[in-house]
């Protein structure tokens, strides 16, 4: 099963933007997270629509934060990306008439819903400036 790493990649970019006092190009961000600049532009456009970043065109253009990291939570970004379920595991419905499959699905669904609610609650309590701030700023001071 393939992991969805879009949230963690975007958080990586946003924390970098918080530490850099100039616009950053999609190409540079793509290098940071080992992906294609088109993927970065599509993803950043979602964040621009939600007013978390701005973009400027031209020679010195790029992406910048529209809000301080302290004003953005993990939940904000999760929601801006239009993420569905936190979990990539799913329930089966191949044998929907089978009472055992139904019982398994009910048990799994209840547990996954509980865990997801807890994670989303916690996401709402964590601002982006809290993401490893001590490590990040000591790293940036060493660079």
TrEMBL record:
Pfam families: Rrf2
Cellular component terms (Gene Ontology): cytosol
Example GO molecular function: DNA-binding transcription factor activity
Domain of life from the UniProt record: Bacteria
Identification of the protein by name: Transcriptional regulator
Organism the protein comes from: Aliidiomarina maris
